[in-house]
Design goal:
The chain is α+β, with helices and mostly antiparallel strands and 498 residues long. The protein contains 12 helices and 23 strands. The protein has helices at residues 14-21, 40-50, 86-93, 100-109, 137-140, 194-204, 219-225, 239-246, 330-351, 385-396, 415-424, 428-431, and strands at 28-31, 64-67, 77-80, 115-116, 126-129, 154-155, 158-163, 170-174, 176-181, 184-188, 209-215, 251-254, 261-263, 268-280, 290-293, 299-301, 306-316, 321-324, 356-361, 370-375, 402-406, 432-439, 460-467. Strands 5, 6, 7, 8, 9, 10, 11, 14 and 17 form a 9-stranded antiparallel sheet that branches. A hairpin with an 8-residue loop joins β19 and β20. α4 (100-109) packs across α8 (239-246) and α7 packs across α8 (239-246). The longest helix is centred in the last third of the chain and has 22 residues, at 330-351. The protein is globular, with a radius of gyration of 23 Å. It starts with 13 loop residues before the first helix and ends in a 31-residue tail after the last strand.
């Protein structure tokens, strides 16, 4: 991973992000071969660049793929993998890949709230209203399925934006949206998400909750939207973090058919209402029992009862591009993981400034379940504080399951180096700390009483700290071999370019 400073990316929307990547060899390809959005498109990208927890063989860090000819949808192109490598995220945000957690940490503290512009500034010129004859989401948008057993076509990169019906405070989050019919989307809301709190308030009052879904935006918005409590508490609009990342406010425009707002320059906007007291079975159209592949690498079970968005309108830009992702790929790792790193860095730094040097929300945990923390012990009194830092990490990001602690001489982005530390600086009987019976992420399939008798309820987990740091009093016995520093370019031409 390059540590060179990346020039600030002139990115304002999806199209300018694509234009930037087209200037960098190896980061963007176009595919003219016709592709079926039903399983084939995602199946192709698994080989091109999905990476992450996707089933092997797959190519980690591969290019973005733009499919120019999607069968049945001549009006649309589909792009996938925009945030599929950490290097590319750094390029799009104009920052060093290794320091992205610090960038986001700073952005939370220097947030710039979004602004509302006039409706005529929205770029979605083409409008289809649900009341019009022939309106049908299934033939209007090329929403892919990831696998042949998916419950249906899914919107996987939809930024859901809604307001608290009591306070008017807004929230933006990505949720699992399955196309259920000509004007209905089912919505799985992970317990604790803020939009679900808004929905419950509206439902208690017997009212629908207006909601917009913006698809295809500035990558900074996608990254910012993935922050979670306690870093962004209820009522915190994560679009303000995207504003800080770019140095100017995200522009929102009023919707046409609901009392709501959407991102003004999104490629596609879906307008609708979350209906009160109405539920559908997620796989009602396929009876597969499956939903779609999720970030841990497994296909989630179809939910028996999900809230429904009744779609009022779909708007999109001329020559539209639908953005999508592969559920368990590297793209999820970066979107979820980098905000996780920022949250951990912030909480630990407030408790023990200067001790936590960096954090990596590791690829194998989908950016959520595993964090590698680089901790510096500079005095005897620091012994044990590394474990306090790990406990703080669990508080900063409640869905975190495992923490690996390493010293400052270990490259946290190099899995071989991390595992080397585990083999030579770790004794299981004294360096493993377990915290059983703690709520974690509901998509971890091992969190069941059937898997472990220590688990009383589905969704609880045993959180574990692997302390692979050297005891301070023994540090001089664990110094790595020191090689001569040399000018490699003298001997191997173009070494850095590779």
């Amino acid at each position: 991973m390059s540590s060179k400073k990346v020039p600030v990316a002139p990115v304002t929307d999806l199209r300018s992000a694509i234009a930037l990547l087209q200037q960098h060899e190896g980061h963007f390809i176009e595919i003219d071969e016709p592709v079926d959005p039903t399983a084939e498109l995602s199946g192709v990208y698994r080989y091109i660049g999905a990476g992450g927890t996707c089933r092997r063989p797959t190519r980690p860090g591969g290019p973005v793929a733009m499919f120019n000819h999607v069968k049945g949808f001549p009006e649309f192109k589909v792009v996938i993998g925009m945030l599929g490598s950490r290097e590319r995220v750094g390029m799009l945000l104009g920052h060093e890949p290794e320091k992205l957690g610090f960038l986001l940490k700073s952005s939370v503290k220097n947030a710039i709230p979004p602004v509302v512009v006039s409706a005529n500034k929205a770029l979605q010129e083409i409008v289809h209203k649900a009341e019009e004859p022939g309106f049908d989401l299934r033939t209007l948008l090329p929403a892919p399925t990831n696998t042949p057993e998916d419950a249906g076509p899914y919107i996987t990169m939809g930024l859901c934006y809604a307001a608290d019906p009591e306070t008017g405070e807004h929230d933006v989050t990505i949720h699992r949206l399955c196309v259920q019919g000509k004007d209905e989307l089912s919505m799985w809301l992970t317990p604790g998400r803020h939009i679900d709190a808004f929905r419950q308030k509206a439902e208690a009052a017997g009212k629908p909750l207006p909601i917009s879904v913006s698809i295809g935006v500035d990558p900074a918005i996608y990254v910012a939207a993935c922050f979670e409590p306690p870093t962004t508490p209820l009522g915190y609009d994560e679009l303000a973090i995207a504003g800080a990342l770019r140095g100017h406010a995200v522009e929102l425009a009023p919707c046409l058919t609901i009392d709501g707002r959407a991102i003004a320059n999104a490629e596609v906007v879906i307008e609708g209402e979350l209906l009160p007291n109405y539920r559908v079975r997620e796989d009602q159209n396929t009876d597969t029992g499956r939903a779609m592949p999720e970030f841990p690498g497994y296909t989630g079970d179809a939910k028996p009862e999900l809230p429904v968005i009744k779609v009022k309108a779909v708007r999109y830009r001329p020559n539209p591009i639908l953005q999508t992702t592969v559920g368990p790929g590297q793209e999820h790792v970066n979107m979820a993981g980098i905000p996780t790193e920022a949250s951990i860095l912030d909480m630990v730094d407030r408790a023990m400034p200067g001790k936590l040097l960096n954090v990596f929300a590791h690829t194998s945990g989908g950016g959520k379940l595993l964090a590698v923390m680089q901790f510096r012990k500079s005095a005897p009194v620091d012994e044990g504080r590394q474990r306090q830092a790990a406990l703080l990490a669990f508080s900063a990001f409640p869905e975190l399951k495992h923490v690996i602690l390493v010293d400052e001489d270990v490259d946290i982005f190099d899995t071989d180096d991390v595992l080397w530390a585990m083999q030579t600086r770790f004794q299981g009987d004294i360096d493993t700390l377990t915290i059983p019976g703690v709520r974690c992420h509901p998509l971890d399939p091992s969190q069941t009483p059937e898997y472990s008798p220590s688990i009383r309820e589905v969704g609880n987990s045993c959180k574990t700290i692997f302390d692979c740091t050297v005891p301070f009093r023994l540090k001089k016995h664990f110094e790595r071999s020191n090689f001569m520093e040399v000018d490699v370019e003298r001997f191997v031409s173009g070494f850095n370019a590779r």
